[in-house]
Amino acid sequence: MVVGVSGGPDSLCLAHLLLGLRERYPLAVHLAHLHHGIRGAEANADAAFVAEIAHRWKAPLTVERIDVPALAKERHLSVEEAARTARYEFLARVARAVGAETIAVGHNADDQVETVVMHWLRGAGLAGLRGMQPLSPMPGAEESGLRLIRPLLSTYRADIEAYCMEVGITPRFDRSNLDTTLFRNRLRHELLPYLEEYNPNFRELVRRASIVLADDYDYLRAATESAWTNTVLEESETYVVFALAPWRALHPSLQRGLLRSAVQRLRRSLRDVGAVHVENAMEIARLGHTGQRATLPAGLELILDYNQLVIAEAGHEPRPTSGTYIYMGTDSVPVVLPGQTPLPGTPWLLETQLIPRDELVIDPKRNQDSHQAFLDYDAIPTSMMLRRRKPGDRFCPLGLGGHEKSLTEFLIGAKVPRALRDRIPLLVAAEQILWVCGLRPDERAKVKPETRTVLHLRFIRHPMAEESA
To answer: Shortest CA distance to 373 belongs to which of 316, 427, 335?
Structure first.
C-alpha cells in the first residue's frame, strides 16, 4: 500500500497507524512525498522531515519534486487544482512502480465537511454533495485498477492531533493553510465557524448528510445505468444519441443523470458538470423544438432532433439514427378501420383503408415504402390493435416461406437500436402479428392471388402531433 505523506498531522497519523498494522497483517507500506515546488525552504524542510520519519519508522519512501506553478500554467488550471492533479498522478506512478494496488491518503472528517460545503456553494448535484468516498477508483487512473482509500474520513482533525500528541509525533505546520485568499482556507477559517454559531453541531450534520447522499447517489446511479441501456441509440467517442420519446418518459432525476453521464463519458477528464448548463439543456430537451441546441461544458452541445437527443461536439450535425423507425408512446391502441389512428405521445399517425383487389393500383410485391403495408383483409380474423412486443412473440417474416422466427431475434437482425425494440408497433389481430410496423409484414397476411379485399396501412408524421410529442 502506498501512503501519501505531506508531513502534516493527518498523513503522519495515517502512516503511523498503518505501519503499526504490519505485525498483525501481511501489509507492506510504502510512503510517498511530493514536493510541490511552491513554498521554497519550508517545502525543502518538509521533504527532509518526511525522509527522517521514514528512516525512523523503517518504511520505504519515494520523494519527487514537481513544479506545480509551471504545471498549472501548462494545463490552464488553478494552482490548487494543479497541485491536486500532480499529487494523484505522483501517487499513481509510485503505486505502479512498487506494485501496489491501493493508495491511502489522510483526508479527515473536517476535510469532508469543507468539501461538501464547497461543492454546495458551487451548485453541485448529488455527486458533489456526497463529498469524498472512503473507497474509490484512483482519480485520473480509473482504468488502471488502482484503489484510493481514505481511512480517516470519519475522524475529526482534533482527534487526529490528539493522537499525534499521545504517540509523540510532532507534525510539520504548513503556513499556506492560513492563507484566506484561497477559497478552501477562507471557508475553513471564516464560513464554517460562522455557521457553527447557528448550530454548533453543523459539521457533524453535514458529515452524516454526505453519507446518506452517497447512498442515494449509488441508488440513482444504478437506475441511471439501467435507463442508459434503454434509451441510448448510439454511443461513440464523439457523440451520444438518445431516443427522444423514451428519454422524455423518464423521471426528471434520471433525465438529468443521463445528460451528466453523457457529458462525463465524452469528457472523461471533466470532474464537475455545471448545474446551469444541465438545467438549460434539460429545458430544451423537454420542451424545445427540432433543431434547438443547448451549450454544455467543454465544447459540447445538446442537439434536439425530431425524435432523438444528441450530445456531441459543438457544430455536430446529427445523422438520421432512429428517424426511419415508427415507435409507440403507449402500450397499446385499437386501430380505426377505415380511418386514422394517432399514436399518443408520438408524431405518428396510422391511416387505414380497404381497397377492392381489382382497384389496387400498386403491386404489393413492389412496395418500397417501409412505412406502408398491403395485407390480405380476408385473412384477418378479427379487429386489430397496435401494441408493443411481449415476451415470446413470434411471427413469420415475409419472404421466409412461412418459417417462424422470434421477434427479438428478428429485431436484432434488422439492427433496430435496443432502446427502440420495445417501442416498435406491432399490428396484431387475435394475438397474431400481422405487421412489424415499418419493418416486415407476416407471410400469412400477404396479398395472395385469391385475395378479394386489400387492407392498405400507411404511417405518416402528423405535424400537430410532432409539435407536442
So the answer is: 427
Q: What angle do CA 391, 375, 459 make, to 5 degrees?
A: 75
pLDDT bin (cut points 50, 70, 90) of residue 206 is very high
| pLDDT digits 0-9 by tens, 209-237 | 999 999 999 999 999 999 998 888 878 88
Q: 467 pLDDT exceeds 90?
A: no
**HSE-up (13 A, CA, CB side) for residue 336:** 8
Confidence at residue 420, expressed as pLDDT on a 0 to 100 scale: 79
Residues present in the chain in total: 469
What are residue 442's DSSP bridge partners? Answer: 397
Question: 174: which residues sit within 8 A by CB, 6+ positions away?
Answer: 6, 7, 8, 39, 42, 46
395: CB partners within 8 A, 6+ apart: 404, 405, 407, 410, 432, 433, 436, 442
> Residue 349: phi, psi to the nearest 5?
-135, 130
Residue 263 CB-half CA count within 13 A: 25
The DSSP letter of residue 250 is: S
The number of beta carbons lying within 10 Å of the beta carbon of residue 154 is 13
Spatial distance between the Cα atoms of 396 and 372, rounded to a whole number of angstroms: 18
Chain segment 284-319, per-residue pLDDT in tens: 999 988 778 999 988 899 998 867 899 998 877 765
Instruction: Provide the pLDDT for residue 462.
Output: 67
Q: CA 135, CA 104: separation in Å to the nearest integer?
A: 9
User: What one-character-per-residue DSSP string does 141-205 give?
Assistant: -GGGT-EEE-TTTTS-HHHHHHHHHHHT------GGGG-TTSHHHHIIIIIHHHHHHH-TTHHHH
Q: Report H helices in 249-336.
A: 252-266, 275-287
Pairing outcome for strands 61-65 and 394-395: unpaired
**For residue 278, what is its C-alpha cell?**
444541465
User: What global pTM score does this model have?
Assistant: 0.66
* CB neighbour list of residue 314: distance below 8 Å, 6 or more residues apart: 295, 299, 300, 301
Closest of 51, 154, 143, 146 to residue 101, by C-alpha: 146
- Sheet with 293-296: strands ordered across: 232-235, 239-243, 308-313, 300-304, 293-296
Q: Are 175 and 11 in contact (CB under 8 A)?
A: no
In this model, does residue 321 exceed pLDDT 60?
no
pLDDT digits (tens, 9 = 90+) for 80-136: 889 999 999 999 999 999 999 999 999 999 999 999 999 999 878 888 899 999 999
